[in-house]
Amino acid sequence: MRARGLTRRFGELVAVDHVDLSVPPQRVYGFLGPNGSGKSTTIRMLCGLLTPSEGEIEVLGLRVPAQAEELRRHIGYMTQKFSLFEDLTVRENLEFMAAVQSVPRERTRARIDTLVEQYHFEDRQKQLAGTMSGGQKQRLALAAAVIHEPQLLFLDEPTSAVDPESRRDFWEKLFELTDAGTTLLVSTHYMDEAERCHRLAILDRGRLVGDGTPAQMTAALEGRSFVVISERPRRVQHALSALPGVLSAAQIGASLRVLADAADVESEAAADSLRARLEDAVHKVDPKARFAPAEPNLEDVFVAATHDGRAQREAAA
């Protein structure tokens, strides 16, 4: 899947702003971004549900939106809101979706039997969908989305309303799909889910501000992350937040996670100067505090990417 210059305007609002994407096959490609960043709008354009204002899209060798109708036979789509029929049973929902997706009648029964076993609905085939838990509904929605064995599956924040254990089980199902040859594009705002993706795109206010594997993106922040352990974390946080070059000082229990601006670590001398200033500010508030470099994580990546992207827009304005 490739997109070049992908743009969508709603009147004066630019929801997606000249985004370039390349999604490799048989991988989980993640869209990470806050609400309103353009993730859902981008997904709707990629699967042919929304016409771009500008740009080019090619999915599975098909031009979108010109060949969107043909594309729909080869893709699945799952949203964060449960979209099946709550007054139908598990099996009735799957039978209905098989008909909608034009699964041949002679294959429908065997395909549903397979999904019932894979998604652990053997004892719930006659249960009304509306009486199931959030995690069970989520598994049913995923089973329905893949009933026609799509080559590409779009998932728009599919785990936003379920508990952590259900989310973990759901991701195991996603990796089973990639092992079987399906390509997945998943939007999320959960950092732990982003870490599971083979590759990530970070969107902010409609712009692509980061793209790469989680390992590549965290490695690019080497030298910019620090941790402070203090008995006065709030006071230390206020002191650090006021310093030039500090993008973020987030409290996590009794510790602080500090992220520095890229401009302040461009050289070894600059990095040494920054560290000295940070340590001095910390120890003025709490002489017993411990200050040390930290391994960057995806939350650091997200904060840095969104900050750097906004800084670039402001400089260009």
From TrEMBL:
The keyword Chloroplast does not apply. Keywords: ATP-binding, Nodulation, Nucleotide-binding, Transport. GO terms for molecular function: ATP binding; ATP hydrolysis activity. This is ABC transporter ATP-binding protein. SUPFAM superfamilies: P-loop containing nucleoside triphosphate hydrolases. InterPro entries: AAA+_ATPase, ABC_transporter-like_ATP-bd, ABC_transporter-like_CS, ABC_transporter_ATP-binding, P-loop_NTPase. The keyword Amino-acid biosynthesis does not apply. Transmembrane segments: none annotated. CDD domains: ABC_DR_subfamily_A (cd03230). PROSITE patterns: ABC_TRANSPORTER_1, ABC_TRANSPORTER_2. Residues 1-230 form the ABC transporter domain. Belongs to the ABC transporter superfamily. Coiled coil: none annotated.
